[in-house]
Structure formats: structure tokens, C-alpha cells
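Figure 3 (text version): C-alpha cells given as input.
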């Protein structure tokens, strides 16, 4: 067998096994190294895989082996040669490094709350036994709609109590025949068409947040949510949690957001332009630290890079990489594995 084919076979085997535990482990390791986990894997969904792959494969036939002096062969050859066809089939995609933006993002926890002033507690005007109840917990009621009737002990007539606002019945503390007492709420109704999202921000993070910043509110365990903005930073501190509260509001036309629900949210403080950025998926850790793999024809060289700011998708590259160089942005762990494997076999 030609050595090329051996590599090819090895890489294919690798990419097959990577579908199981290997890639997860790798991703987990990478995520741990990066200290961020949420979205490392969706960072480049917008970079058309086909576009890159085809362009690369078409243009590079012929000079894969033709640049012997390149890549600095002083110590270990931290590079792999992978035929274009194998690279393509393994899903390896390279893209030109270039400028980008890195966001200062804050991931925060929050709580959905009804708007103050949009909650009504309805009490009996005159004491007396409840004659009928006409609304249940969860019912949507209109302003003016009768919720219950009560036999007044004072006037000995039956009177109705009605909803002062339109909304949803959150609580009902009444049974037929029971005596309604003045001042004890029988119903609690809230207008939930708009809700507050109170985001709890701790320590120095609070100083980064201000009204007007975009925020995405997500249910726990979910990754997609609704976009809104911070309305205000509440004065004072929530005493129990010692947090500062940043308040946003969301529309709730279908009633799917529920008061009392915990949520998480991502606040984007600013998008900062950087001269050079790569998706997090391009990063791998090797002995020399953080590396990306630069593609030159069929040769992939590990390139130690110094990193700057990062967000959930991208990281700024301060040095080690030049604009325009082709960086592997998908399946970079395959290159790493290939280099590490060949490195080990060279050293015995
Ligand atoms: Zn910040």
C-alpha cells in the first residue's frame, strides 16, 4: 500500500469512530479548555460547508508535496498530509481567516414575573356565603365578567363580584357555601399578555449592563428564545440573593411563558470588531497550547496561536495566524488526532 492510502484508511477509521464517544470526549475537552460550553458547536452554521469544500478541492490539485521547506521542520513535524478527497469525505472544511466581531456576552439567570399593577386581587365587598363560582384557575376572563355571586349578610341580597381587569385567573380561594370575609382575596387575576423578565446579575457584571442592551430570553435547557432589550436596572439590590436586577419585558400572546418560571438569558453588551477571528470549532489544544490548523494544499500544519477575547462562537486571534490563511473550521479534531498518531509512531 502507498503511504498515502494508509493515512487515508487511518483517517476514515478515525472519522468513523469519532461518531461515537471520541468526538464527544474531544468536544467536552475542548469546551472545558475554553471555559464556555453553550454554543461551541453552532459557531459556524452560517459558513456554507459546500462553498468552502468545493473551492478548496478544486483549486489545490498538484502542489501538496511541492513545498518542502514550508512549515518549519526543525523539531517535530506538527503537520498531516490528507488527500483532498479524504478531507472532503471526512467533513474537513477550511476557510480564510479574516476580521470578525467578538461579543461581550453575559449569561444570566432570571425569573418571569407578572407586571406590577397588572395583578388584581378580588375581595368580597360585603361578607356572606358564596352562592356560586363562575371562574376557575387558569380561565381567561374579561374585565367586567362575573366571577362569583355572594349572598350578602348585610343586605340579604345576592350580589356579583366581577373581574376589574382582563387576564388569567391565577388563584381562587373560595368554595360554594363558604363565608366570604371582607378583605380576604377570593380571586387573583393577572394580565399576562406582557411579562417582566427579572435578570439577576452579580458583582462586577452589573456594571456592564444598562438599559437598551439586547437580550435573548430562553427557557431553562433551551437554546433559542425571544429577543428583547433591557428596560431598566432596578435601584437597590435584591436582598436574598444580593444581586442587581436588570428588567426586560416580553410579549406573551399565547400564554406560554408562565410567571414564576426560571429562565436564562444572554445579554450582548457589545460587538467588538477584531482584526482576526476564528470560530471556536477551529481551536484545538495540543502540547504547545492552543492551535489552529492551517491548510496548504493537502498539508495541514498545527499553528500555535495567541488568543484574545472570545464569545460563544468566535475567538480573537492575536498572533500566530495571518489574514487570508486557510484555517480548518470543521472537524479540526481529526487533524489533531492524525498528527498525534503519526507523532507517536515517529518517536519510538
Ligand atoms: Zn461584560
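Below: residues designed for each position.
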Amino acid at each position: 500500500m502507498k503511504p498515502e492510502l494508509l493515512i487515508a484508511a487511518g483517517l476514515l477509521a478515525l472519522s468513523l469512530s469519532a461518531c461515537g464517544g471520541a468526538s464527544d470526549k474531544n468536544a467536552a475537552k475542548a469546551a472545558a479548555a475554553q471555559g464556555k460550553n453553550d454554543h461551541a458547536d453552532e459557531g459556524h452554521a452560517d459558513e456554507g460547508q459546500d462553498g468552502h469544500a468545493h473551492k478548496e478541492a478544486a483549486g489545490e490539485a498538484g502542489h501538496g508535496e511541492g513545498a518542502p521547506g514550508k512549515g518549519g521542520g526543525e523539531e517535530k513535524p506538527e503537520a498531516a498530509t490528507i488527500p483532498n478527497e479524504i478531507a472532503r469525505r471526512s467533513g474537513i472544511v477550511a476557510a480564510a481567516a479574516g476580521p470578525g466581531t467578538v461579543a461581550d456576552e453575559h449569561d444570566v439567570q432570571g425569573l418571569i414575573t407578572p407586571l406590577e399593577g397588572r395583578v388584581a386581587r378580588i375581595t368580597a365587598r360585603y361578607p356572606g356565603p358564596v352562592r356560586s363560582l363562575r371562574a376557575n384557575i387558569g380561565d381567561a376572563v374579561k374585565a367586567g365578567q362575573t366571577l362569583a355571586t355572594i349572598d350578602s349578610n348585610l343586605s340579604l341580597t345576592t350580589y356579583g363580584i366581577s373581574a376589574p381587569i382582563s387576564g388569567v385567573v391565577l388563584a381562587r380561594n373560595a368554595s360554594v357555601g363558604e363565608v366570604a370575609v371582607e378583605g380576604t382575596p377570593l380571586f387573583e387575576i393577572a394580565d399576562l399578555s406582557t411579562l417582566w423578565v427579572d435578570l439577576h446579575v452579580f458583582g462586577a457584571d452589573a456594571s456592564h449592563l444598562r438599559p437598551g442592551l439586547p437580550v435573548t430570553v430562553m427557557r431553562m435547557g433551551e437554546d433559542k428564545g425571544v429577543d428583547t432589550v433591557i428596560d431598566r436596572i432596578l435601584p437597590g439590590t435584591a436582598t436574598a440573593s444580593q444581586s442587581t436586577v436588570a428588567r426586560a419585558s416580553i410579549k406573551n400572546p399565547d400564554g406560554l411563558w408562565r410567571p414564576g418560571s426560571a429562565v436564562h438569558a444572554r445579554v450582548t453588551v457589545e460587538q467588538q470588531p477584531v482584526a482576526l477571528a476564528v470560530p471556536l470549532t477551529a481551536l484545538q489544544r495540543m502540547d504547545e497550547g492552543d492551535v489552529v490548523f492551517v491548510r496548504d494544499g493537502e498539508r495541514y500544519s498545527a499553528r500555535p496561536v495567541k488568543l484574545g477575547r472570545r464569545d460563544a462562537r468566535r475567538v480573537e486571534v492575536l498572533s500566530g495566524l495571518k489574514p487570508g490563511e486557510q484555517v480548518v473550521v470543521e472537524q479540526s479534531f481529526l487533524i489533531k488526532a492524525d498528527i498525534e498518531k503519526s507523532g507517536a509512531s515517529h518517536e519510538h
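The domain at 120-190 is CATH 2.40.50.100 (OB fold (Dihydrolipoamide Acetyltransferase, E2P)).
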